[in-house]
Amino acid sequence: MWLSILGLILGVSLGLLTDIRIPPEYANYLSIAVLAALDTLFGGIRAHLQQVYDDKVFVSGFFFNIMLAAGLAFLGVHLGVDLYLAAIFAFGVRLFQNIAVIRRILLNKWTEKKEIRESV
Amino acid sequence: MKKPSSRKQAKFSKSIIFPLVFLVLGFILAYSYSLSQAEETSGDFMANSQFEQEERFREELIEQQERNKTLREEMQNKQNALQEFESSFSTEEADYSGMAAEAEKLRRYIGLMPVEGEGLKVVLEDGEYSLEAVNPNNYIVHESHVFQVIHEMYISGAEAVSVNGQRIQSNSTIVCTGPVIEVDGVQHPAPFVIEAIGKPEVLAASLELPGGVLDQLVNDNIIVTMDEGLVISMPALLSES
To answer: Which of A44, A90, A118, B169 is the most exposed place for a label (fewest CB within 10 A)?
Structure first.
């Protein structure tokens, strides 16, 4: 757990300190990657809460989604089709769904706890 | 035996993979953030700078225009000054040319230059020897006659006068020494050819005035011949005749 937080901090600091400037037309890939990462993260949290979490699925999904999104955006740029919109749409929808599921699960847990406490 | 090892492996992979995942996540987030921030600032900066640049260029332009204006005014002033100078030059030049002409004229008067022009030629010859006249002074040409003629010519506007080809200058001396006269130390016998440059008709008229020089000369038994309309040339004083 601590190692994970350390990794996060390291990543953030690395990202902030990186001085490499990518051309603006490639910024789309990065936004897609961000979206994919967030989606996978929330997917992982949801899976954990639903007790269907799997390390391999999470990790592979994390990296694969990032790469897929970036590749899709890349393809879209080179084909002249805004394919990254599709990725944004898909990931956005899934992100909201995941967050909604997480919220519902947490609400259920909370209400259950409350009921238990009341009954006690 | 197998289970703990797999558990251990799982734990190990978890402890390695999660930090890795979070590292990537953090990196992507932070990088994206910093990139968008940079873009925003750069865009902002660009817009700002565009505006500022426009403003700055405009100010520069105004400054340049003002400077141009002042320079133009300066140029105008300088040109005016130059024109004044030039006009003064031209007037001075005119003055100079006038002066030069005057100097030449004066030089002609004092005999430093050879002169040529229309003039009058007067020849004074001794009168005929006559038995009645006992005194030869009565019929030979005296220096006073020559003087008279020369003076009359000067008075009537002669620019240059010569006696037997010798220029008369302002301080010339004419001395009578017996039958000859000396002009500046050079002896000249009769007949005396007095040449004058000037307006021939004026010179002739002044000589021919009633009771004037001509009459006096004739009274003194001198033979006077006048030639008008000749082109007379005289050497400069300094040159050898």
So the answer is: A118
